[in-house]
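Figure 3 (text version): structure tokens given as input.
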């Protein structure tokens, strides 16, 4: 089993990395491989709604989104960790996720997802909520923990002092490993849930 972890922080070795490292260590102990990619300093532009990806099966802007799309497809789970900017994921993370989820046309049903928010003080809940919307729109079960997935720290490395936050990361790792293994067994025995044909309904006609 493998998890792709997106670290959205522009700060190398910062508090988002502290949270991610705790998760990676736990997943490894559960026999799950992790790949961490840090995108925080990358020049990733936002989606322009051109819908070229519907025909080309990839984004028209050839950057980290297209590079990571195949690894997303191969992975059993996706984790997105981000610092909190104005009670939201930072702009790079939002641009990356908008384009990744729009351009990746493969079936994501039962590929598990988890968001992690890291902040000095506030805004973690709103950020966590924004990340979860990407997973739930495409049939990806969201992994729970013992609390909302957040870790706190201001200065570099301060998150190492957040005992409850790091415990939340360890619980998240254990639950994620269990859920992925359980889904793999369920798919083997029962297959994926049958899907109805999409019925797009606009509110304005």
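Below: residues designed for each position.
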């Amino acid at each position: 089993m493998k998890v792709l972890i997106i670290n959205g922080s522009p700060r190398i070795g910062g508090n988002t990395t502290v949270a991610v490292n705790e998760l990676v260590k736990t997943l490894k102990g559960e026999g799950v491989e992790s790949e961490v990619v840090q995108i925080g300093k990358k020049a990733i532009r936002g989606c322009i709604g051109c819908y070229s990806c519907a025909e080309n099966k990839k984004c028209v802007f050839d950057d980290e989104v297209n590079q990571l799309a195949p690894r997303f497809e191969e992975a059993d789970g996706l984790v997105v960790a981000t610092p909190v900017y104005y009670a939201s994921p930072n702009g790079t993370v939002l641009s990356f996720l908008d384009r990744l989820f729009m351009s990746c046309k493969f079936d994501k049903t039962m590929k598990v997802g988890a968001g992690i928010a890291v902040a000095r003080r506030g805004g973690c809940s709103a950020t966590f909520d924004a990340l979860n919307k990407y997973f739930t729109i495409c049939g990806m079960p969201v992994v729970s923990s013992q609390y909302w997935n957040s870790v706190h720290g201001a200065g570099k490395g301060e998150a190492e002092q957040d005992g409850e936050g790091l415990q939340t990361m360890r619980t998240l790792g254990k639950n994620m490993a269990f859920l992925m293994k359980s889904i793999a067994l369920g798919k083997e025995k029962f297959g994926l849930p049958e899907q109805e044909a999409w019925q797009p309904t606009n509110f304005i006609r």
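The beta strands are 2-7, 33-38, 77-83, 112-119, 150-152.
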